[in-house]
Write the structure tokens for this entry.
Amino acid sequence: MNLLQVGILLLVALSYTSSKYIDKDNEWEYLVFTQTWSAASCMEFNHEHRSCTLEKDLNKWGIHGIWPNNEDKTGPFFCDHSWKFNESAIADIESELDKRWPNIINDTPHTNFWKHEWEKHGTCAASLETLNSEHKYFSKGIELNKMWDLAKVLEGAGIVPSKETPYDMRNIKKTIEAKSQSASNVGCIKVDGVQMLVQVEICMNKQFETIDCDDSHANKHGKLLWFPNIKVYPCGYDEPTYYVLI
Ligand code: 5GP
């Protein structure tokens, strides 16, 4: 085999191994690390007739996902349909995931939420070396959930879950952003007409340094703060906001 043939062979091999990610549709620019206030999320699920049990254990910020995204469009999603969720790949961190990345919908396997997030977002995030396995993706979620301990951040500003006391949304957002040193998306839901804090999105570059991702992203690109069964919108500033306690 001459040098040219070796070169061609190498090129073919290289393009084959990376072919999953050279598809333009699967490219992405930054990551959105999204956490959910499980108590509010649970109330909304019940409102939407999906069963969630209101337990004290839901007074916490659970991980929703790490979502690859683009400036000019959301996603990509489902980048590799052949890369199905495999529970055994995360066996050693499952108990930690149950606490920090809980599936709060009743009567579904506890792995359901992880399966959804891996196949929809994880298979796209996997183009990054630091997230290129299920174990790395879910471990990163745990690491970020510890790093961005929102309960502690808010508590530092006197913002604690409460059944009675509403908070000023500006103060909530200011407190989160003072910590992240970047503009974040803060999402709310309405339950019986009352605004409740439910979601915080912190955006990061591929080195996991925070970057701005404020409400203008959600408005400009439409879908960041919306998903089918829970209706999340950029929190309004002019109404009292509940950080609900169960
Ligand atoms: P996304 O598709 O944007 O990553 O996430 C939205 C989906 O997550 C929605 O279908 C919503 O129902 C689902 N979701 C949010 N919280 C939970 C949960 O605790 N368990 C499960 N199984 N799905 C959840």
Remarks:
- The pocket of guanosine-5'-monophosphate is lined by residues 41, 65, 103-105, 108, 112-113, 117, 120-121, 227-230 (CB under 6 Å).
- Residues 73 and 221 are 6 Å apart (CA to CA).
- DSSP finds nine helices and eight strands in the chain.
- The two ends are 71 Å apart (CA to CA).
